[in-house]
Amino acid sequence: MADRQRPSTDPGDSGIEVTPPKTWAAGVPGVAVALQHALREMGPRRSLKTLSAMNQKDGFDCMSCAWPDPPHRKVAEFCENGAKAVSWEADPLLVPAEFWAEHPVDDLAGRSEYWLGQQGRLTQPVYKSADSDHYTPIGWDAAFEIIADELNGLDSPDQATFYTSGRASNEAAYAYQLFVRAFGTNNLPDCSNMCHESTGVAMADSIGVGKSTVSYNDFALADLIIIMGQNPGTNHPRMLTTLEEAKREGASIVAVNPLPEAGLLRFKNPQRPSGVVGRGTQLADQFLQIRLGGDLALMQALCKRVLEAEDAYGNALDHEFLAEHCTGFTEFADHIRNLDDEQVLIATGLRPAEIDELADRYLKARRVIVTWAMGLTQHRKAVDTIREILNLLLLRGNIGKPGAGASPIRGHSNVQGDRTMGIWEQMPDSFLDALQTEFGFEPPRKHGFDVVESIRRMRDGEVKVLFALGGNLVSAVSDTTVAEAAIRRTKLSVQVSTKLNRSHGVVGERAIILPTLGRTEMDLQASGPQFVTVEDSVCAVHASHGAVPPVADGLLSEVAIVSRLAAATLGDRVDVDWAGFERDYDSIREHISRTVPGCDGYNEKVRWEGGFVLPHPPRDERRFPTVNGSARLTVNQLEPIVVPPGRLLLQTVRSHDQFNTTIYGLNDRYRGIHRGRRVVFVNPDDLAELGFADGEAVDLHGEWTDGVDRVVRDFRVVAFPTARGCAAAYFPEANGLVPLDSVAERSNTPTSKAIILRLERATTPRV
Ligand code: SF4
Questions:
Q1: Residue 409 beta carbon below 6 angstroms from any ligand 1 atom
Q2: Is the CB of 666 under 6 A from ligand 1?
């Protein structure tokens, strides 16, 4: 049993230490840090039980990122950050009953995410009444009754919004969307609204499916892998193993990023001698230190060079593929041929020779994969940027063939599965029709509110109930001050969670916390032990079986919570056997197999060893379910971001001790940050130009067209080799600088990667 003590004081940021950034990832230190977290949080026996079952075919799926599992699992099939995630969730330390009397809600709101997460696992439902500032324990049934009464007391179902974090299993997500639609609304915002929504919109436009077009094995078949706006070393660490294997098969890798992330440069695989005693494997053969928001221009410049090569040699384009499968080439080519090269250089911050080299690599490669993450999706022009990636790939037929394709890498373990199960505020009529046929009720047809719209409606008093299935909305969303006021304006906020976070401190007039089982824990229901299912970034669906007993008795699974709430709220309004859902998850999977596209035979297929892969027409048969039934080359307008003099362009990033808003520790060992988080990374030449010094205390001011001076205070300047003019700081600390209404065109995703930043000397320096 771990003997970890609950920290009484919030460590804060005093005593930040800064060391030179690393140029390689993982290695023996990665193993050491992983074991350190596991032994400190779980102790030796629970560590062995959990880590040995993690990502194994009969084990549980890591609840962190959505990197796919290899067909052949290794004994240790996890990374450092996966081990941190399991240690954090399977933590046997419990939040004691007296905690709630000691810590009023306002106190929780003032605490750091790190301190809150270190308080232990939640084990009993608690309730904060309107006339109290404290939570007090409450029974499950009483909790469901309060929520049901509040929901049924609303003038319209659209006065409630139902948020989902990407940790929810497919079974919980399916039951949840069914409950919410039976209740009468499509207000189903999810974390995807804040991350890959831009990907979904762009890929649906270009090829008809908003998911990765590659399978796991394609990486080893690629000639060239281009990694854009992604930091795999921290956010998808097992991807480094796959990249190493691809390099061994002869692939070359190009990394495009404003930050020289260690995990893009070199990988010391601790499961190989070269990674333990040697120099490991160099990953990027070319590193392009692009300016924030410059990726659209780079893709257009590459497309132009491909067209120029075609003009010169007549063999650069895949004519057969373009003729048979694509439309829009002429308009696209006209637009690209007239691209302003000067604008491209301004937008990218790159030299022509760097772009030429990448173009040369692209033209020499027969099979090319492009991967990306938030560095592309959280910009105003994100949708156009991703459409341009598809344009580039379509020109040479790099879709729907082995070793080639477009591969957005999802940040949350089941965010893609949740969307497949219906967690989206704008599901197509075909899905709603299937629900109507299956369950005999008329689902709402009007599109619901996504995350940003839900915050707006709470702010404006239109949404009165916030229900969150996991997650930490107040810290994840942009414009923290606005989001806090909006949530506090609700009549009731409910949070389903395993551990504390700031969303338990920033609450409505009344609030309820419902503790739930973790993915590591055995889920015993009336019909016996249950498993759940998840979908990874490459559309592979597989089972996840808990490996250790629940940390406490009386915890309910997500499925049980949703089913009991649905029964309490809806009564017999719809003909759904909610109790049956809880009793046996097979009953949910049977419904899934009849209503979710591509999931026929779901309940059988998830029992296949390793699960199954969902159909994907562009990947499987070069069939493109777009508006015109073809792959579409699109025209996208280049609008470089204009940064006023004396300002920088800021992006928010994760540290290496972080997963979304969950803070495992206060170090970011790859970037050389120790014991603190309130830092801002700035290029030394920019510091000299702006008159600031490394180590100085500053306030960060975010500027936008609404003229509001958004400020987050007291950050330590860290001189860091960022792209010129570009800076970086961690979220959620810097989310307050991102205006709520500053969103990507068409996808409504917050623009967390392009904030106009003004540095000012700190008014109340502490760091
Ligand atoms: S790569 Fe992602 S899914 Fe795999 S163990 Fe690491 S954090 Fe978990």
A1: no
A2: no
Of 33, 55, 81, best ligand 1 pocket probe by most atoms within 8 Å of the beta carbon: 81
pLDDT at residue number 10: 79
Q: Which of 373, 389, 408 is the last residue of a domain?
A: 408
- 62 in ligand 1 pocket by Cβ < 6 Å? yes
Residue 275, ligand 1, Cβ within 6 A? no
Ligand 1 mean position to 263 CA, how many Å? 14
- Atom 7, ligand 1: residue with shortest CA distance: 82
CA of 718 relative to ligand 1 center, distance in Å:
29
User: Which range marks the domain in which residue 38 is found?
Assistant: 17-89
Query: Is 81 near ligand 1, meaning CB less than 6 Å away?
Result: yes
What is the rounded average pLDDT of the residues 57-78?
96
Q: Are residues 55 and 80 in the same domain?
A: yes
Q: Report how far apart, in Å, the C-alpha atoms of 86 and of each of 56, 90, 190, 447, 706 are.
A: 14, 6, 22, 36, 42
CA 194 to each of CA 316, 373, 379, 452, 648: distance values in angstroms, whole numbers, following the listed order? 37, 12, 11, 8, 23
pLDDT of 767 above 80? no
Q: Write the CB contacts of 353 (distance below 8 Å, at least 6 apart in sequence).
A: none
How sure is the predictor about 81, in pLDDT bands with cuts at 50, 70 and 90? Answer: very high
Residues 566 and 595 in one domain: yes
CATH number at residue 118: 3.40.50.740
pLDDT at 416 over 70: yes
Please give the number of the atom of ligand 1 that sits closest to the Cα of 413. 3
Q: Which residue's CA is minimally distant from atom 3 of ligand 1? A: 65
Beta bridge mates, 121: 94, 499
Residue 766 has pLDDT above 70, yes or no: no
Q: Check pocket membership of 82 for ligand 1, CB cut-off 6 A.
A: yes
Residue 14 has pLDDT above 80, yes or no: no
Place of tokens 């030796």: 44
Of the residues 619, 651, 684, which one is the last residue of a structural domain? 619
In a domain? residue 381: yes
Closest to 176 measured CA to CA, from 578, 734, 647, 732: 578
Q: Are residues 438 and 458 in the same domain?
A: yes
Rg of the chain in Å (alpha carbons): 25
